[in-house]
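Email to the structure team, subject: L-tryptophan decarboxylase PsiD-like domain-containing protein model.

Hi all, the expression group asked for a predicted structure before they design truncation constructs. Nothing fancy, just the tokens so they can compare against earlier work. One-line instruction: predict L-tryptophan decarboxylase PsiD-like domain-containing protein, return tokens.
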Amino acid sequence: MSTACTEAPRRHTYRVGKWLPEDDEVLRKWLENLIKRVDKKKAKGELEDRSPVIQEFAELIEGDSILFMLFNLMFTQVPNKPPYNLDPNNDPQVRDYNHMLDLFDAILTTAPDYQTEGLVGFPINAILDWPMGTPAGFEAFHNPKVNAQFKKMLAVWATYLTSPASASVLNTSEDGWFGPEAEKESVLQNFATTFICDPTKQYYGYVSWDDFFTRLYRPGVRPVEQPNDDRFICNACESAPYAFVQNIKERDTFWIKGQPYSVTDMLSGPDASPYAPQFVGGTVYQAYLSALSYHRWHSPVNGTVVKTCIIEGTYYSERIQHWPPPTSTKPGPDPAAPNLSQGYLTEVATRGLIFIQADNPDIGLMCFMAVGMAEVSTCDIEVAAGDKLVKGQEMGMFHFGGSSHCLIFRGGVNVISNIPEPLGPDSTPLPLSSAILFVPAATDGQ
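Reply from the structure team: attached below.
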């Protein structure tokens, strides 16, 4: 490679959380390469029969008139003009639902490698990037039968990601997770001293991609800040602050651009809804996790687990987008969705809830919400009702998939931000167990 001083630096641009490249051209090329591989095999008659779960997906679409209509419309509703992903003939790269299913099938036996031009940590999301934002896509990806099928399909992929074969991307090549390019990422630097691993073993001792994704910090790497002062609330994940909103409503229009938080929708279902009235008028702190970072959750307070539950939800839904007419010069949907649908996803995506009775009576009952976003979206809760928690104690983890989380406080709790970072999609991750929020004692200042 040339090292001349005139050489332009390699771009490392990403969308929120680094799950997808920010540069649409990088994403277009990645999808183009995947399509070429699949189309070439199909042209030569080398494409194997669809896996059972993909064939079942096809039968679901073709056996339901409404779904058949929606899965056809979502591809025709993508405009045939830049900046939408187009092939050399100015046609959509993903041509129709059968093409989509063939691409899905190719993904199910691959693990994400580290790509120097831009990580595609959401390969299935990349395939759906534009169709999911169309009116037909919005409708289709809310359908319970479609989400149930996605869950089946993603479970098959999860099986591969926990298999020894998936560890092959954990190598030292240019596109390997222990290669020279990956080592330039700040969160992957000093890897052997930061995370529990064995560099003398193949794949640093990790037995699968999922084993690497859910890696543990070495003891002492993320010390708990203010462990004995119950007025301080710690960061539950290694995450970047997205929003801090007070006086949240019982019900709100969470699907619009502003994405207000809606207590009834966030805490829905028979297990969570009985607790919802206590959180009306309360506070939500939300943060998002990077594709490259630590993916386990730790207790933000000293307290006792009251209730845990999983709310099944959507996988590829994003907030309502507004598509201009084909002749319009105005921009269409935000290509960074669902990454920029963070607030919306707290009401519709798969999520894991842990209700905690804090030892500090001025906090009282609070809720940790893990939000699974796209791909596998597995929320793995490891604590149960009655468990005593100390700040910094592990509570669970995300397995491969995009992720966000919320801390939710009851109405009347005086939550004060101690966040040193501007909120929003461009914020920097804060260390796990750092003191990010503060609830003064009722007697403070008296």
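The longest strand covers residues 303-311. The radius of gyration is 22 Å. Ping us if the truncation boundaries need rechecking.
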